[in-house]
Amino acid sequence: MSGVDRAQDTADLAGGERLRRWRMVLGGGDAEGTGCVLAGRDAAMDAALGALYGGDAGSRKGPGARSAGLGGSAPNVARWLGDIRTYFPGSVVQVMQRDAIERLGLSTLLLEPEMLEAVEPDVHLVGTLLSLNKAMPETTKETARAVVRKVVEQLEKKLAARTRATLTGALDRSARISRPRHHDIDWDRTIRANLKNYLPEYRTVVPERLIGYGRAAQSVKKEVILCIDQSGSMAASVVYASVFGAVLASMRSIATRLVVFDTAVVDLTDQLDDPVDVLFGTQLGGGTDINRALAYCQSKITRPADTVVVLISDLYEGGIRNEMLKRVAAMKGAGVEFVTLLALSDEGAPAYDREHAAALAALGAPAFACTPDLFPEVMAAALEKRPLPTP
User: What are the residues whose beta carbons fall under 8 Å from the beta carbon of 240, sequence distance 6 or more?
Assistant: First the structure.
């Protein structure tokens, strides 16, 4: 075979692959125009996509048209869940599951144990299960807890080691000493503190005063209060915050308190050793009273200069706005480090109250969305009382 023939074959294969992909996107029917007929695995993948995204594709009469819909029955959905796990990677399966719940109203089917055993566990599924917690029959709760625990353990495995290492370093650095050992010297601060001792003829600084890091003893503690809005839009943030709360609580140098709120305030600190218990202690949905939640947190602060308060909320306040802002100002005035996160998730900034965000920024507490990967750095900066690494 000549080089020209091989090049032509390669071009034909590439063209065929493009047609195949367009056929998968367009979904078939009289007007799709590719002329590509799917068979075998491709046809099965197309059917799985059509069941979810076909819309009114059931009305299509052309050859190869998708048959849309899952029939709203547990057997059909369970079979479909099995199909998509066969044909698509896990990250795509999670997106399709989320879309199925939102587009086809399948939430109630998750109350059946057989359904839960068929799904791919992820943060968004956990949020949906928590919102259904009150409606969940006892026969389903154990299966639901197993699904939630699997997700929590995956998150802990991913996030715990880096969080502990980052915050341990921050705690060490926050204990400044004036007679450090050589490897504990903070050279940047030492040089700045001794610039007046610069000797031009030697082009050097004489460090009369050394500044360094101490090693944070077990008795040296910072206090962290996680104050989490449990309105329905904050589901993913509640999941991540609960996992981080458990990680922080495992560190002896940090006294951690976890508070969730809607119009009522619930302190879940005594359940922090098991984030699954924390999550099932939340009640997603309902109104929002940030002022009441902050009043409770404020009442628990015993050492303001050593305390970090993290408010995780979209800032849609149903309580008294001016009182909320006064509380933040009072806490900051007393020496509390106040952090406002519009979300703690990988989804970016949600819809949020921009007026409240601007008012908090004016108080020195800028509000921003934070990813789980960035959260350890944000907490380290807060513990060290340095500028937050806002995105």
Answer: 123, 155, 344, 345, 372, 375
Q: Cα separation of 384 and 165, whole Å?
A: 14
For residue 185, count CB atoms less than 10 angstroms from its CB and return exposed for 0-12, middle for 13-18, buried for 19 or more: middle
pLDDT, average across residues 329-345: 95
pLDDT of residue 336: 96
Residues 312 and 153: their CA atoms lie apart, in Å, by 22
Half-sphere exposure of 224 (CA within 13 A, CB side): 31
What's the angle, vertex CA 88, arms to CA 83 and CA 93, rounded to 5? 80
CA distance 173 to 212: 8
Instruction: Considering only residues 64 and 322, tell me which one the structure prediction assigns the higher pLDDT.
Output: 322
pTM of the model: 0.69
> What integer pLDDT is reported at residue 57 of this predicted model?
39
Average model confidence (pLDDT) across the chain: 81
DSSP string, 342-362: EEESSS---S--HHHHHHHHH
- Residue 131: pLDDT band (50, 70, 90) is confident
CA distance readout (Å), 73 to 14, 69, 85: 40, 10, 19
Least confident of 38-42, 160-164, 228-232: 38-42
What residues form DSSP beta bridges with 343?
A: 369
Q: How far from the centroid of its chain's Cα atoms is residue 262's Cα?
A: 19
CB atoms within 10 A of CB 101: 17
- Residue 57 burial (CB count, 10 A): 18
Distances (CA, A) of 2 to 19, 87, 325: 26, 37, 77
Please give the backbone phi and psi of residue 351, each rounded to the nearest 5 degrees, phi first. -65, 135
